[in-house]
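Hey, can you fold this one?
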Amino acid sequence: MEHEPLVSIIIPVYKVEQFLDACVASVTAQTYRNLEILLVDDGSPDACPTMCDAWAAKDPRITVIHKTNGGLSDARNAGIKQATGSYIYFADSDDTVAPTLVEDCLNAMSEYHADLVMFQFDTISESGRPLLSNYRHNDFDEVQILTPVEAIKKQVKAEIDGYFWAFLAPAATYRDTGFAFPVGRKIEDLSRICNVIGEATRVVRIPKVLYHYRMREGSITASWDPKLTRDWTKAADDREAYIIERFPELKGFMTLQQLNFFANLDYETIRQSLIAGLNINPEDADAIRRRIDRLSKTASESDEPIPDTLRELLGLLKLGVAKFADSAADALAAAPDAEPSESSMWLPLTKEQIAERWANTAHDGHDAADNDMTLAERFRDMREDWRQLRIQHIEAAEERKAERRAARNGVTFEQE
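Sure. Predicted structure:
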């Protein structure tokens, strides 16, 4: 390229000594060389601070920011403040990037006159082995050129994932708009993704896998807790508030899509979440019920009709959540100090029981057989993020078994 703008790559670092070298090595190996690499040591208690300094001594493009621990959002904000490049890219310190990531993105910007470039990604295990995945984000095989509104709609419908490492954006998007990640909260990507999309003039999506996302037990989404559930709700609220203020014509669309989001949290997802240890408590379940009621009322007063199948699923979800919340409250009252086991978790009704109860309620005169068909189709459609967590745990368990067997036989594994 005749003009080679400086690209700032911000990498927050915290307790990732096992993966940090692989991440930084993949960034320094970029075919595009005009980089400013900011390693933000977020008060990491392990060897990461020393490793960051060692990398800075080897590559003059690397600057290390040592700071007290404030979380991922705070670390990213610190990186933004110090970045001097024309473009900013975020990478997670336990992942790796393809060698042509920056070059491919800048070439796409030039070729398609875009200022925001998105790309595909794949998933790897802790040991770096490829994992099976089927993210809707990757479900395209030709270049897509989108307006900001079109891209926002795809993001809200989960056709574009809310990962900040899945795109390259102009630095002005972060510097000139008052942008900041929400400190003290997780799910920060979902909270701010549409703020970046909304400031673009043209978005291009290229069908190239340029990022390798590592699924590991120590990651934020793998260590789910009730606070994370609430942070997810806050993130969705932040996203909605920005979209409605920036694009008021999307208000009806946003209401309907929020309802679809809750409809997708069907019985099976809730059950699997509980078994996976996500610990949705009765208070959060009740909040979900109230939120559905409020959104349903708003949608009924708008010009966007709610599909009949969506109404059915919302009713089923409310029944399932209600059953779970009531059972959990009873169980806690009976044995407040007891620890729930996987086999005695406070689960909702079975899928068949919920369907039977719903069939016995008034629902606009629809035939029960039609409802069952709709449910069968819907229950097969699990959300990708929970499926990925299950894949991760299965992979990790299999790898541990293989390593134990090998250790007994005096065999060691070499990293690929």
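The chain has 15 helices and ten strands. Let me know if you want another pass with a different chain boundary.
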